[in-house]
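step: validate -> pass
step: tokenize input -> pass
step: predict -> running
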Amino acid sequence: GQSLFHSLNCHGCHTPNHKTGEHRLTWLSGHKIWPYTDLLLHDMGDGLADGGGREWRTPPLWGLGRHKAVNGNSFYLHDGRALTLEQALLWHGGEAELSRENFKKLSASERTALIDFLESL
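step: predict -> pass
step: emit ->
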């Protein structure tokens, strides 16, 4: 699943890791964290466009596997329109359109492997 995540270029926006900067509390400085986001705005296409436009900040994927337990639901994306991770991936467009189209070409077992990886985060 992790290799598929990279081969689909999901990591282009959902950047796996970052290093924390300097902080007055030294124990917070210089740690590698794994949020799976670049925290930037990206054009996500007409499918996700609403009154606020087509640009969305890349949400962190860490903790995705705990989404239902923490939130009490399995709704994904900014407005909960996706009921599964697969639906959330299929709503990607704009800058992520090629990734979405390549996701559609995956076999059922490859899709399962990718979803399992995402749920492990």
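step: describe -> The mean pLDDT is 93.
step: cleanup -> pass
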